[in-house]
Structure formats: C-alpha cells, structure tokens
C-alpha cells in the first residue's frame, strides 16, 4: 500500500462513521445549549431574588410612612388648634388692652 494514496473504505462503514461524527457534534451542541439555559435560569433566579428583596424593603418603608389621609387629618387638627390658640391670644390681648386703658 502506498501511504500517499487514499485508503479504500466500504461505503457503509464511511456513512456510519460520518453519521456517528455528526451525532457526536449534535450531542455536544445540544449539551452546550442545555448548559447555557441552566446558567441563564440560575442568573435569572438570582436577579429575581434581589428584586424581591428590594420590593420587600420598599413595602416595609411604605408601611412605616404616614398616609395622605392621616397627614391631612393631622394638618386640619393642627390648624384648628392653632386657630383656637390664636383666638385665646386675641382675647387675652383684648383684655390686657382693656385693663390698660383704665
């Protein structure tokens, strides 16, 4: 046999070898895709955990804040107290000025 000449292989053996090689490549490609999907799912879960933690923190902060209705009620109560105090002060000033004239 001359090493420079191609070797003769039966066609069935050649076809089977090519098919086995392609099957191996397809399997490697499939395995790589599955690994990429696993990594993506893992990173997505970590990202969602961080988002859920942030969402929980925001909910806690919002739960501790005063609502608009509560703030409005406190402001109105403060205004009425301030108005009443102002009325008392005016009466006292009026009484003082009344007694100062005499």
In short:
The chain is mainly alpha-helical and 102 residues long. The protein is built from two helices and no strands. The protein folds into two domains: 8-65; 66-102.
Q: Layout of helices and strands, plus pairs?
A:
Layout: H1 11-64, H2 68-101
Mean pLDDT: 85
Biggest sheet: strands, sense, closure?
none
Rg from alpha-carbon coordinates:
43 Å
H/E topology pattern? HH
Strand segment tally: 0
What structural class should be given to the helix and strand makeup? mainly alpha
Q: Judging from the principal axes of the Cα atoms, what is the shape?
A: rod-shaped
User: Based on the structure, what is the oligomeric state of the protein chains?
Assistant: single chain
Number of domains: 2
Residues in β-strands, percent: under 5%
Helical percentage: over 70%
Tally of helical runs: 2
Distance between the termini: 144 Å
List segments where confidence is low: pLDDT < 50 over at least 5 consecutive residues. Answer: none
How is this structure best described in words?
This protein is mostly helical and 102 residues long. Helices cover 86% and strands 0% of the residues. It is built from two helices and no strands. The longest helix has 54 residues, at 11-64. It is rod-shaped, with a radius of gyration of 43 Å.
Based on the model shown, name its key terms.
102 residues, mainly alpha, 2 domains, 86% helix, rod-shaped
